[in-house]
Specification:
single chain, about 130 residues, mainly alpha, globular
Length: about 130
């Protein structure tokens, strides 16, 4: 993951693929496809970094982990931390990831508390 532009491109590819997969299987919402794929990607990326760390190869920058966690891969990243037992000694890294997890929990709480209002609003703007 070399630069921010590449990370953003990957994010848009996940969003595009979520819409494409929704066309193939419309019974599964786009949001489920997106979050499922971004979490699997974050988990695989974490595994690749663990493998590269043991073989002394080029590592995945921590900024990439934070980015993919922030755009929805936080659960996959935490599963990777537990599964691969990687980056457990990096307190600053874990603190940032924990803050991102708290932000996602607050956001999801807000969405579920106001789900009726959100649905009514989306129906009013769609016509």
């Amino acid at each position: 993951m070399c630069c921010n532009g590449f990370r953003i491109l990957i994010m848009f590819l996940f969003a595009f693929s979520a819409f494409a997969l929704n066309i193939v299987m419309p019974s599964i919402p786009v949001i489920v496809w997106y979050f499922g794929s971004i979490n699997i990607f974050a988990l695989i990326l974490f595994g690749i970094d663990k493998l590269n760390s043991t073989k002394e190869r080029k590592r995945v920058p921590e900024l990439s982990f934070h980015f993919f966690s922030l755009i929805g891969g936080v659960i996959g990243l935490f599963i990777g931390i537990l599964l691969f037992r990687h980056k457990l000694q990096k307190r600053y890294f874990l603190l940032i990831e924990f803050i991102i997890l708290i932000l996602w929990a607050i956001g999801l709480y807000y969405v579920f508390q106001n789900l009726d209002t959100i649905i009514a609003w989306s129906k009013s703007i769609s016509g």
